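Technical note accompanying the year-one report. For the benefit of new consortium partners, we illustrate the data format agreed upon in the data management plan: each record pairs a sequence with a structure-token string. No post-processing was applied to the example shown here.
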Amino acid sequence: MTSPNVEKILDIVAAKAMVPRENLKLDAKLTELNISSLDVVEIVFALEDHFKIELPFNANAQNAEFETLGQVVALVENQIAAKNAA
């Protein structure tokens, strides 16, 4: 069972990258899902907007933090936890 945050994160990824939701597994690499760098930027903005957080992301750098969906989820959850602790 995944948390509501994980479900929402995957819903946002599916919508922004136009990838079928059932194809999204946490160990899937973004490149394997054909998620482009532009899609990643849109996903980051949508996640920041939805969860009212800021993600450390540089669109001009090949960011290894965003290699898999699990890494995206972990980063978002860490930022949510940090915001809630503040």
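Partners are asked to follow this layout when depositing records. The helical segments are 4-17, 37-51, 69-85.
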